[in-house]
Amino acid sequence: MEKTESERLFEHYCKSKGIIYRRIPETKTRTPDYELEVGNERIVAEVKEIMSSKEEQESELLRSKRGYGNALDYTPGDRVRKKIKDSSGQIKACTQGKNPSILVLCYRSVHGHLDPYNIRVAMYGLEQVHFAVPPYGTGSHHTLPA
Fold first, then answer.
1. 93-96: which pairs have CB atoms within 8 A and are 24 or more residues apart?
2. Which terminus of the chain has fewer Cβ atoms in its 10 Å neighbourhood, N or C?
3. pLDDT tens by residue, 88-124
C-alpha cells in the first residue's frame, strides 16, 4: 500500500531525530502503522492524516484569491476526537497495555484542527462553567439601583 503524506513526513522526522522505526506489516486485522525503538523502549505509533473538508478547501482557495476565506462552522475537537476513536482499537490490540503508544496527527492547512484548544477539547470535552444559584425566594438578593 502506498504511504500517505503524513506517513512520509513521520518517517522523515524519525530519520532526522535518529529514531529507529519499523513499518508494521498490514494484516486482515487493523494494526498500528509503526513500531519505534527509543532507548530500550518499544513504542507503537499510529499515524493519522486529517484531510481538509470540501468547505475548508473552498475557503482556502478564496483566501488565496481575495485575501480572506469563508466563515466555517465546526465543533471544536470533533475531527481530532474522531481520529482518536478510530485508532484506539488498533493501538490497544497491539500494545495489550504492555507498551506505550502514540497517535501522530498530521493536518497541513491553515484551519486550526490541531491547535492546543482543539486537542484539549477532543480529549476532555468542551469546557463548561457551572453556576450554583439558590432557589428563588431563598438566600439574600440584591436590588439593582434604578
1. 93/29, 93/30, 93/31, 94/24, 94/31, 94/32, 94/44, 95/44
2. C
3. 888 887 777 778 999 999 987 666 788 889 899 999 9
